[in-house]
Amino acid sequence: MRRALPAPVAMPSDLYGRPRPDLFLGLVSALMNGHMAAVRVLRRSTPTGQRVERSLAVVVSGRSVEAHDDNVVALTFTRPSGGILPPWRPGAHIDLTLPSGIRRQYSLCGDPADTDRYRIAVRRIPDGGGGSIEIHDAVHLGTELVVSEPRNAFAFAVPGYGSPARHLHFVAGGIGITPILPMLRLADSLGISWSMVYTGRSTDSLPFVPDVLAFGNKVTIRTDDVDGLPTTDDLLTGIGPAPAIYACGPAPMIRTLKIGADTLGDAEFHYERFSAPPIVDGTPFTVELARSGQVLDVPADVSALEAITSVLPDTTYSCRQGFCRTCIVGVLSGTPDHRDAALTDVERADHMLICVSRSQGERLVLDL
Ligand code: FES
User: Which of 154, 320, 339, 349 could form a disulfide with 356 if both were Cys (CB 3.0 to 4.6 A apart)?
Assistant: First the structure.
């Protein structure tokens, strides 16, 4: 089921890829994005400020291998009895709850105009947290799963529709192509000036190469085994004047690219990375786990999540970047140093996201 979508209007995220907190801009953006967007925002908050997540039952209706090394699988989800799914825009992700209960975020890589399906792609990570292995080994055609409504922590602002940029430059590292693909399709369909660098270890490891090559000479594919590790200049190949850069990939690639973006002066830089952000200005503190009485030291360069999973390995988490809310924990005593972009003020009174938030004092007592 396809429908034509209007040109998107998304408030650009800030220099560090985070949504801008400006209330007025947020309201304008919501209104410009249409009535449904505003309705969905309202539905996620109760009068007390607690967010309400809405889950959807879906079934795997498509499954394909998308990289020559066989380590990337794409899944298509539809409603069990068909029908329209909540809309989304390029850069959005869904939370996927696996049969084991593991919850993970995956970017939507299909076409928003296909209103009855979501598509994701997952690289197998042998030494990861187990989510990708479960998807590869235990999720098949017909498997029933639960997903969240799409959310967008990597908003895409099209030049002329919410962004003053005149050129879009995309950089994808390996499986980082997933949020970028819908952006490419949209930019191309709107006739916007754009370029792209697609990079990875080897061509065999890159998913969706035929889809990307179909865009012709706007795309540069370069791989480490042939070209060496990319430099800033490599990652900016083809960039035009007054650019907005959208990048998704591993932390070293994002770091290299940011150095280049900083030298351009007038560039917007939006990114999504695979791993937890580095801890900035961290100070050590202790965490008491109220249910067991265990007291853990959290060093300045370690997250509370990392310290806690060392003794409670089943602690739930997903993005490790403070936006998915999976790691929310009740705070019984102490004052958190909130560093997330997801909790409401009401929630912050007695909860925290332990993947990024820390402590203002020497000790926190958590409901764990
Ligand atoms: S793991 Fe996503 S907010 Fe903490």
Answer: 339
Distance between CA atoms of 180 and 108, rounded to whole angstroms?
9
pTM here is 0.76
Both tokens of 267, joined, read 């560039």
Name the class of domain 55-152: mainly beta
For the chain, the residue count is 368
Domain chopping of the chain, boundaries: 55-152, 155-273, 285-366
* CA atoms of 69 and 180, how far apart (whole Å): 21
E strands, 214-294, in order:
219-223, 243-249, 268-273, 285-289
Q: Ligand 1 test: best mutation among 96, 273, 317, 366, most atoms within 8 Å of CB? A: 317
Measuring from each residue's beta carbon to the nearest atom of ligand 1, which residues come in under 6 Å?
A: 317-320, 322-327, 353, 355
Query: What is the fold of 285-366?
Result: Ubiquitin-like (UB roll) (3.10.20)
Q: Which of 86, 78, 89 is nearest to 112 (CA)?
A: 89
The DSSP-derived string for 288-302 is: EETTT--EEEE-TTS
Pocket test for ligand 1, best of 274, 309, 315, 325 (most atoms within 8 A of CB): 325
**Percent of the chain residues topping a pLDDT of 90:** 68
